[in-house]
Write a structure and sequence with these properties.
179 residues, mainly alpha
């Protein structure tokens, strides 16, 4: 949305030396053009207003299309798979022909403890990734809302300018008729 709003739209000025009909036609064309330009800005978006449903849809769309969030999700899935694998293979640390290794597993410091530490480390890293994912999603939601409100403000300003132009044209006609 921010890329769509990066250009500041300004209505074309009305010519000072034109007939009443020409001025009215230009104001009407300006209003139609404004609506068409804002409709074109919507593009493939499902909506473009600040209603709760629209904000929710656009936020979900931004989160679903975020390459950074997709990458983090891939890392989380890989970490969970590694945790599951390490957990399922933990029992193999007890199968050892070396009696010293078996005693180390019983009292600590053996392969079983190393696997437990590796699993704990992976779980910690996974939780950090999940926290980062939530933080990025929250920032995306805030940005979508900010840009949507900015878009609506620009749209309202353009509608106001078109209404002012139409009012001024009408006022000019009233003055001309009275003259």
């Amino acid at each position: 949305i921010s890329l769509m709003l990066s250009c500041c739209w300004q209505p074309a000025p009305l010519a000072a030396q034109t007939s009443d009909f020409d001025q009215f036609e230009r104001v009407f064309d300006l209003a139609v053009r404004v609506r068409e330009e804002f409709a074109a800005l919507q593009g493939d978006l499902p909506c473009l207003n600040s209603s709760t449903e629209c904000v929710r849809q656009l936020q979900q769309m931004a989160i679903a299309n975020s390459s950074e969030l997709k990458l983090i999700e891939q890392r989380i899935v890989a970490s969970r798979q590694r945790i599951d694998y390490q957990g399922s293979q933990r029992w193999t640390t007890w199968i050892n022909p070396n009696p010293v290794a078996i005693v180390q597993n019983i009292f600590g410091g053996g392969d079983a403890q190393k696997v437990d530490l590796a699993i704990a480390d992976l779980e910690l890293k996974t939780s950090e990734l999940e926290a980062r994912k939530a933080e990025i999603a929250s920032k995306l939601k805030d940005r979508v809302l900010t840009e949507l409100l900015r878009f609506e403000e620009l749209y309202n300003q353009s509608e106001l300018q078109a209404a002012i132009a139409a009012r001024e044209t009408t006022r000019f006609k009233v003055i001309e008729v009275g003259y």
